[in-house]
Design a protein that fits this description.
Blueprint (H helix, E strand, L loop, with lengths): L4 H9 L8 E4 L2 H9 L6 E5 L12 E4 L5 H8 L3 E2 L9 E2 L3 E5 L3 E12 L4 E7 L6 H7 L4 E6 L7 H10 L7 H17 L2 E12 L4 E3 L2 E5 L8 H4 L9 H8 L3 E4 L4 E5 L2 H13 L6 E4 L6 H12 L6 E8 L4 H15 L5 E7 L2 H9 L6 E3 L2 H15 L6
Parallel strand pairs: 14-16, 16-17, 17-18
Antiparallel strand pairs: 1-6, 2-3, 2-6, 4-5, 7-8, 7-10, 8-9, 10-11, 10-12, 13-15
């Protein structure tokens, strides 16, 4: 789950992480009041959307006087920001962060993320703040410092000092930087974060270490421990179909293709999309129904896939372990009848009760094409979609 920058800063502030003074505003009137409550020589007005690259897209403005706040707020509120992370459709700005301006001496990058290969939290830092860390890794990897954290010990002060010296924090500010990192690590662990990114982390001319921009993502699997975080969720920033999917416990991401996919397991779902592409097809979505889908969940998945007007066919690829193939087959038959399916449907089942599952599909009397392997399934759905479109089979 993602939250806005201002929400992330409010959360980190509770842990003692240093952030600039700021307030959220939903209207130009609220923006000027927020600026007046912050005694500063200049203010930063920042569009709040769930996407990076806001500055380059014109979503961050500097106001040198209170008179400039209102026109800037009027310009940004309601504006569609298009960044590399929003896609061409962009995102509408509905709220702003009004923040005190900072006199920046130097910018750095600091991030924490789960290293799944090592089953540890990795702390990544760089002297190149304000840039995408992927770009730094590609062009100047020697400027990246990395520490792997032992989960039994946590981030050790000596590791934080090594990071601080490694990215060029001045000697006088090393202790402040160490304190900042230890507090950020505590917040990361306490709140079940999946990502904590401070970009840029800044050293001000007065010698302060501040989180100038903050990105916090949370592990959905840990949200049951943090009910208060659910109140921070902004549904207006999420895809409507993804919201519907979350209500049924489905993992759904919309794509640009025309072949809907329903799969159990994230790895199998990605492999299914890959093999569709290998046969010159285009997947319309990533959809993982999980390991214990019911008939109702399968029907919800079908309705979700078909809510995309670009879908011209559906591929169901299920490996039955915890999920039994006969239960899935019954769900597919019920869903096909209830939603009035009119596009080609290819089903590949394998695993527990697969023979019974295939018999259920065969005796249903519905227009369902069976497949034996992933390649067979992908080839068939691509052919059926092409034929239905009147095109040439690729």
């Amino acid at each position: 789950m993602n939250i806005h920058e201002y929400q992330g800063k409010q959360l980190l502030k509770k842990y003692g992480v240093a952030v600039p003074l700021g307030n959220v505003a939903f209207t130009p009137e609220q923006a000027i009041e927020a600026a007046k409550s912050i005694h500063a020589k200049k203010w930063v007005v920042k569009a709040q959307i769930h996407a990076g690259g806001r500055g380059k897209a014109g979503g961050v403005k500097i106001a040198g006087s209170l008179d400039q706040i209102t026109p800037i707020a009027e310009e940004l509120l309601g504006k569609i920001l298009v960044t590399p992370q929003t896609g061409p459709a962009g995102k509408k700005v509905k709220r702003l962060l009004i923040e005190e301006g900072s006199d920046i001496e130097k910018e750095f990058y600091l991030g924490m993320v789960l290293d799944r290969n090592a089953s540890r939290i990795a702390v990544i830092a760089s002297s190149e703040g304000g840039m995408e860390i992927e770009e730094v890794a590609s062009k100047t990897p020697e400027k990246i410092v990395r520490e792997s954290v032992d989960p039994l010990i946590g981030l050790a002060p000596f590791q934080a000092r090594r990071i601080a010296f490694g990215i060029g924090i001045p000697d006088r500010q090393v202790n402040k930087a160490v304190k900042f990192m230890l507090e950020l690590y505590r917040a990361f662990v306490d709140q079940d974060c999946s990502i904590a990114e401070i970009n840029p982390l800044v050293l001000t001319k007065s010698g302060e270490i501040l989180a100038l921009d903050t990105k916090l993502n949370f592990d959905d699997n840990g949200l049951y421990r943090h009910k208060e975080l659910l109140d921070l969720r902004d549904l207006g920033e999420e895809d409507e179909k993804e919201i519907q999917a979350s209500e049924y416990g489905l993992n759904y991401i919309a794509l640009d293709g025309n072949i809907g996919c329903m799969v159990n397991g994230a790895g199998l779902a990605m492999a299914t999309m890959d093999i569709i592409k290998a046969f010159n097809g285009d997947p319309a979505n990533f959809l993982d129904v999980g390991g214990g889908a019911s008939k109702e969940k399968v029907e919800a998945a079908f309705r979700l896939i078909l809510s995309d007007p670009h879908v011209r066919g559906i591929l169901v690829n299920i490996f039955g372990g915890i999920m039994k193939c006969d239960v899935i087959a019954e769900g597919i038959v019920a869903a096909t009848e209830n939603v009035g399916l009119k596009v080609p449907l290819v089903v590949r089942l394998e695993g527990t009760n697969v023979k019974l599952g295939k018999e259920i599909l065969h005796h249903s009397g519905l227009n369902i094409t069976s497949a034996n392997t992933m390649a067979d399934a992908a080839e068939k759905i691509v052919q059926l979609v092409d034929q239905a479109a009147g095109g040439v089979v690729k």
